[in-house]
Write a structure and sequence with these properties.
Blueprint: E1 11-12, E2 22-27, E3 36-43, E4 46-53, H1 61-75, E5 85-91, E6 95-101, E7 105-107, H2 108-113, H3 119-138, E8 141-143, E9 151-154, E10 160-162, E11 167-169, H4 175-194, H5 201-210, H6 222-229, H7 234-258
Length: about 260
């Protein structure tokens, strides 16, 4: 079983499945959402995760439609920092459920609570989390706010995975959608910095700007935010491009004169 999910609240779910396809079904309260329960189970002996409607919503067409749309959106996503969907089926004892890969690891929330943050985890937030957010925005995907509760770090490599943030798709994202992603990123970074053993003023300033109450004062895009994290600015980047162009011009002139 995915050891990172073990908790006192988890609950074994009995399965009546004569085919033997499903076994070791366990409810994971740590990962539940407002309308959904999350489980871990074995499918043909392989560990997977399941996302299904809570019993009180299972027969409501509105919420069944929400689960359908999430599957349709997530099934077409493919990114190394997002937990991937591989099926959607009726499961004994659970009902209709999205089946995903099992992200073997620990939530950022748990790592914060257990004081197990590392420099590598902080770096993953600076790079891999931004990669995932950028990918979602490029594909016009909207979702619940990203938080320490739906970020997983795999146990051995500490790679970041987004889990169960609830997905739907638009024709185009609005500036507000983008700004809300940046604000949520700032909140995650800010909470992690609160629990780091050393102060990192540069990242604190970035987090505060992401969380600015006035959206106009926030970073306008993920690329702009990434530039700031990488100790660069748009002006510095433009200066570097200009310097490169000037160097190429000098090289061309030299080549012409040499001939």
């Amino acid at each position: 079983m995915a050891l990172g999910y073990l908790s006192k609240e988890e609950k074994k779910i009995p399965i009546n499945d004569p085919s033997g396809k499903w076994s070791d079904m366990t409810l994971l309260p740590e990962w539940e959402e407002k309308y959904y329960n999350v489980y871990t189970a074995r499918k043909h002996g392989k560990w997977v995760m399941l996302k299904a409607l809570k019993p009180e919503f299972a027969d409501d067409p509105k919420y069944r439609g929400m689960l359908d749309r999430e599957f349709e959106t997530r099934y077409n996503l493919a990114h190394p920092n997002i937990v991937m969907v591989n099926d959607y089926e009726e499961i004994p004892g659970v009902g209709r459920a999205i089946v995903t890969d099992d992200a073997y690891g620990y939530s950022l929330r748990r790592l914060i609570d257990e004081r197990r943050l590392t420099p590598k985890i902080l770096r993953r937030l600076e790079t891999q989390l931004l990669d995932a957010i950028s990918y979602l925005q490029e594909n016009h995907v909207i979702h619940y706010p990203i938080s320490p509760d739906n970020i997983i770090f795999t146990e051995y490599t500490e790679n970041l995975k987004l889990l169960n943030v609830g997905y739907d798709q638009k024709e185009e994202l609005t500036p507000l959608d983008t700004s809300e992603d940046i604000s949520a990123y700032g909140e995650v970074l800010n909470e992690v910095l609160d629990h780091c053993p050393t102060r990192i003023p540069r990242l604190r300033r970035i987090a505060n700007r992401c969380m600015a109450s006035d959206p106009i004062r926030r970073y306008r895009s993920v690329p702009e935010l990434r530039l700031s994290i990488e100790h660069r600015s748009n002006k510095a980047l433009i200066a570097a491009i200009c310097a490169f162009i000037a160097a190429m011009a000098v090289l061309v002139v030299w080549l012409v004169k040499s001939n």
